[in-house]
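Task 17 of the worksheet. Students: predict the tertiary structure of the chain below and write it out as structure tokens. Keep your answer in the requested format; marks are given for formatting as well as content.
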Amino acid sequence: MRVFLTGATGFIGSAIVPELLKAGHQVIGLTRSDAGAQALAAAGVQAHRGSLEDPDSLRAGAIQADGVIHCAFDHDFSNFVANCQKDTRAIEALASALKGSDRPLVITSGVGMGSPGPGQPATEDVFNLDHPNPRSASEIAGAAALETGVNVSVMRLPQVHDPVKQGLITPSIEIARAKGVSAYVGDGANRWAAAHVLDVARLYPLALQRGQAGARYNAVAEEGVSAREIAEVVGAGLKLPVVSLTPEEAAGHFGWFAMFAGLDMPASSAWTRETLGWTPTGPGLIADLRAMDYGV
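Model answer:
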């Protein structure tokens, strides 16, 4: 099929491209720049100029396609709420191009949306509207599109990693570098689910090809890695002391990141693995953090 991929030059999207091509699909990749267009062409991808800020460009890309994977997101987490609202508009634009057909749309969210309650792993059958993560806006937009007959499903991401990037942990490393300590909140027992970027890249095409309308998939390889273990590995890599902060101290230390630092976000992918036949094989989060070059 012809697949329109947003985020095609990004961390996850650039890993999805070869998986789609390997499966025999043609790929139309969204890019806002000449450099991005050149990179896509070199990878065997048809470049489509546009951006998340231009819903008409998203609609035009989706109209050309037999299916859409939407993994682009503005990762300026200091402006997170506004960027979640921007994602809502992007999903609405993509869905409007697919309405009245059975062409699949796979959108992206976070595993926290599936949390049934404190201490319990997020699961695919739960959508927790009370979760404090503003990324719920993406799933609300997806649910609205589903009600209009769009064949939409949701890919929920944990901390997606390799030895260079590790989701929300990447900005936390920069905070540790700037503050001179690697910190966690309380006893650091709060956990973050994780998956290697290449495992996640294999899962998106499976959801596109085999997915069910309205389904939610958890791209989770590790159910939960503790914040304390993460902070200890980062501290060792940066050669910095590791400290525990009270919730009150966390706000001043972490700044905008404080809203995430103490969250407990474990997640299960048992249903996703069984339904889509997905078995993650990549290195774990701690292994990638240990392999990271902290001198950069």
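Marker's comment: Residues 80-98 form the longest helix (19 residues). The chain has twelve helices and twelve strands.
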